[in-house]
Amino acid sequence: MQEPGAALRSCTQVRFTSPGSQPSPVSRVPCTANLSAASPGRNPAMATNTTKPLCPLLEQMTQLQSHSNSSIRYIDYVSVLVHAVASLLGLVENGLILFVVGCRMRQTVVTTWVLHLALSDLLATASLPFFTYFLAVGHTWELGTTLCKLHSSIFFLNMFASGFLLSAISLDRCLQVVRPVWAQNHRTVAAAHKVCLGLWALAVLNTVPYFLFRDTIPRRDGRIMCYYNVLLLSPGSDRDATCNSRQAALAISKFLLAFLVPLAIIASSHATVSVQLRHRGRRRSSRFVRLVAAVVAAFALCWGPYHVFSLLEARAHANASLRPLVMRGLPFVSSLAFINSVINPLLYVLTCPDVLHKLRRSLRSVLESVLVDDSELGSLGSSRRRRASSAACSPGACRLSQRGPLRLLGCLQGERGVSPPRGRARSQDERGPQSSEPMIASS
């Protein structure tokens, strides 16, 4: 009886007897067939994957062998530990954000944006344990093709949804400054939810190609890759041309739609707001503005390297010298992109000053003090501050300081029996579902 590795060794001897020579396409088919038959415990149905056409980069990735070096194993152990901790933290953090913002806070336009961002991050961190398992079992995908497609699709869905939602947040802030009257009449919680649903639909539409092309591909050493094969559907007669065109289309489209265009919208919106406020002699000091800036910076730093390597990957199909760099770098930058979903919840809390003191009091009070609209935005900002400063607290209930309406907001939130001043017009950010909480100005 032939030992399990014999077929693999004979395959290697046949293909590489002449040093430096390239194996012909004809010689690859019997080699792959021997590998499928020789792999112990291999599902016979997986053998059909070995006959599928592969792009040059993907074909070279199937030739990679597992390493037994102790330093490599140590790096693998550390990688598994880091991903396990990140997945646990991400699930807990985003779950808390969703609960507090969605169930314990009054619904405003600002909280609607953050709610959908947290939902996107929760989906991404919920899929991270599957990738951690992939690393833990030796970089082999043992969960089947369906989960491979779903796991990868969630990654790209989070990528598109995050970019679209950050763009919407920046445009929302810009409209409050440039068109305050229009924002007063149209900026509602219901409208924000509709915009978010439209952005989710657009993100799903852009994710469909990655779902269709994702596949499980066996390697020579018996491991299984979960990777996208652009030749999976209608490979065409010219393999190289099809690989180059489809890979370039995927890389450029996600770079433009999920990264470059959102960053351009964010930058132009913030520049417009800064110019408008400078003309009015006002300064931007909102905590929510600082929060958006921090989230955008984290988005650019975490997703930027991934898009750079995606463009290099598209070039690697025609340029063989780029393939080693792409194969080594893509796993690291993909993990960095996943970490973005773990960082965002920390930014929601850490942008609030005196965070440790406020965390002892209530996570809800921390988020409500951060997710409040900029009181200096819009034409009604100064009048709201005057009305808020005239509101009186009951004796002994709280102390008012000179730090502006944000401190007053936290004070009023601590006294549930205090009602807002009569006759005050409701903010456009407060229209939506009513709650049992006292209505507090969210300007």
TrEMBL record:
Ordered alphabetically, the record's keywords are: Cell membrane, Disulfide bond, G-protein coupled receptor, Glycoprotein, Membrane, Phosphoprotein, Receptor, Transducer, Transmembrane, Transmembrane helix
The family database entries (Pfam families) matched by this protein are listed as: 7tm_1
GO terms (molecular function) for this protein are: complement receptor activity; icosanoid receptor activity
Q: Which InterPro entries match?
A: Formyl_rcpt-rel (IPR000826), GPCR_Rhodpsn (IPR000276), GPCR_Rhodpsn_7TM (IPR017452)
Q: Where in the cell is it found?
A: Cell membrane
- Compositional bias segments (type: Polar residues): 433-443
List residues of the G-protein coupled receptors family 1 profile domain: 93-348
| Record's bilayer topology term | Multi-pass membrane protein
Q: Where is this region: Disordered?
A: 412-443
Chief subcellular location: membrane
Question: What GO terms in the biological process aspect are recorded for it?
Answer: inflammatory response; phospholipase C-activating G protein-coupled receptor signaling pathway; positive regulation of cytosolic calcium ion concentration
Say which family it is in. Answer: Belongs to the chemokine-like receptor (CMKLR) family. Belongs to the G-protein coupled receptor 1 family.
Q: What protein is this chain from?
A: Prostaglandin D2 receptor 2
Naturally occurring in which organism (per UniProt):
Trichechus manatus latirostris
